[in-house]
Amino acid sequence: MAIAATISVPLTSPTRRTLASVNSLSPHSPRSTLPTPQRTFKYPNSRLVASSMSTETAVKTSSASFLNLKESGFLHFAKYHGLGNDFVLIDNRDTSEPRISAEKAVQLCDRNFGVGADGVIFVLPGINGTDYTMRIFNSDSSEPEMCGNGVRCFAKFVSQLENLHGRHSFTIHTGAGLIIPEVLEDGNVRVDMGEPVLKALDVPTKLPANKDNAVVKSQLVVDGVIWHVTCVSMGNPHCVTFSREGSQNLLVDELKLAEIGPKFEHHEVFPARTNTEFVQVLSNSHLKMRVWERGAGATLACGTGACATVAAAVLEGRAGRNCTVDLPGGPLQIEWREEDNHVYMTGSADVVYYGSLPL
After folding, report:
1. pLDDT value of residue 70
2. Is the pLDDT reported for residue 343 higher than 80?
3. Which of 20, 144, 241, 274 could be stapled to 64 by a disulfide with Cβ–Cβ 3.0 to 4.6 Å?
4. Residue 246's pLDDT band (cuts 50, 70, 90)
5. Principal localization (predicted)?
6. Residue 162 shares a structural domain with residue 256
7. Whether 219 contacts 227, CB under 8 Å
8. What pLDDT shows up at residue 23?
9. What's the CA angle centered on 304, arms 298 and 310, to 5 degrees?
C-alpha cells in the first residue's frame, strides 16, 4: 500500500460535531498513530498532505467539502470510534459493491502500516426498501453480519454525509437484518438491535439446548477449565460467560484475554466461530465486560456483545433488563424490553479524522 495520505482533523466537541466546524484537535482514538497537533497542525481549517518522503505545504479545504472529493485513484474516508472500537468509514452510496477488497481492508486496518482500525465499513445504497446498506470487513478480512459499535458510527457518518441535524433516524439493511439507529439530540445514538436469537441451532452452536431450545448457563470445557456459558445471537454469534468452575463471579480484569479468547472463538462447538464476552456482575443494573471479538481479537468495546450480555444476564437471573455495561472504552446503556422483545443500545460515536489514500 502506498504511504501518501491526506488528513483532515475535525475539532469540535465529541458530541456536537459538524463537518464545517474545525477549530481544535482532540485525538479520540487511544490507539491512533497520528502525530500530535502541537507538532503538526498549524492551520485549523486545513488538511495536511504528507508522504513517506516529505511534508508538503498544507492545502486549505473545509471538512464539509472533504468527503465530497471524487477524484479518481484516491480513497476518501472518515475514521470513527465507538468507545474506542474504531473503524474506517467509506462513502459507497454510488455503487452496490464495496470500493475496496477485503484484502485491501486488512492493509487499511494495520496499525503500523495502514490507517489502523478494527474494521472497514461501507455505506452502500439501500435494498428491500431500506435507506442504506451496511457492510463491514474485519481486520482479518472476514465479513461479520453486523457490528453494534460500527452501526452507531455508520449513523453519525451518514448524518454528516446527508447534512442531517437534530433528532433523526433511518433504516439500514445488514447481514443481520433490519437495523434502525436514531441519532439523539445529545449526539449519542440509540439503536433498535431487534430481537435476540436464542435457539441453539440459529446462534449457531453445537452445544445442546437446555432451556426452551436455548443454551443457558451450560458447561463448556475450554483448555481444561469448565466455563458456564449462555449463547445468544444479535445477528452475529456470542458466547457469554459470568463464571467458571470454582468461581461464581468473574474478576474480568484478571483474565489473560489474549490467551483464552482465541480458544473460545475457534472452539469446535461454534461452527461460525464466536464472539466471547467475559462479564463481572457489579449490581442488578451494572455489568462490567471484556470481549474477544471474532475476526478482530480484543477490542475496547463491542455493541452486539453488550446486548448479548444483558440478554444472557436476564436469562441467568443475574441482572435486570435495563443495564449499564462498562467496557474498556466506556459505558453502553442496554435495555431488553419486554413489550416488543427488542434490545436497544445507546452510546456514543465520534469522528476522529478524515483522510485520503491512493488506491
Report:
1. 67
2. yes
3. 20
4. confident
5. plastid
6. no
7. yes
8. 29
9. 105
Grid cell listed for 288: 462490567
39 or 135, greater pLDDT: 135
Across 18-27, 107-116, 181-190, 330-339, least confident range: 18-27
pLDDT, residue 139, reads: 96
Q: What is the 3-state secondary structure (H, E, C) of the chain?
A: CCCCEEEECCCCCCCCCCCCCCCCCCCCCCCCCCCCHHHHCCCCCEEEEECCCCECCCEECCHHHHCCCCCCCEEEEEEEEECCEEEEEEECCCCCCCCCCHHHHHHHHCCCCCCCCCEEEEEEECCCCCCEEEEEEECCCCCCCCCHHHHHHHHHHHHHHCCCCCCEECCEEECCEEEEEEECCCCCEEEECCCCECEHHHCCCCCCCCECCECCCEEEEECCEEEEEEEEECCCEEEEEEEECCECCCCHHHCCHHHHHHHHHCCCCCCCCCEEEEEEEEECCEEEEEEEECCCEEECCCHHHHHHHHHHHHHCCCCCCEEEEEECCEEEEEEECCCCCCEEEEECCEEEEEEEEEC
Q: 251 with 166, same domain?
A: no
CATH code, domain carrying 97 = 3.10.310.10
Which entry of 109, 147, 231, 323 is annotated as an active-site residue?
Answer: 147
239, 302, 307, 323: which one is catalytic? 302
CA distance 14 to 336: 27
Active site residue 302: yes
Whether 58 has a pLDDT exceeding 60, the answer reads no
Pairing relation of β-strands 59-60 and 74-82?
unpaired
Q: Do the domain assignments include residue 121? A: yes
332 with 295, same domain: the answer is yes
The predicted structure's pLDDT at residue 143 = 96
Q: How many CB atoms lie within 10 A of CB 339?
A: 5
More confident residue, 200 or 31: 200
Q: Which domain holds residue 146?
A: 74-194+351-358
Give me the percent of the chain exceeding a pLDDT of 90: 77
Position 116, amino acid: G
Residue 118: per-residue pLDDT = 95
Active site residue 147: yes
**Is 310's pLDDT higher than 80?**
yes
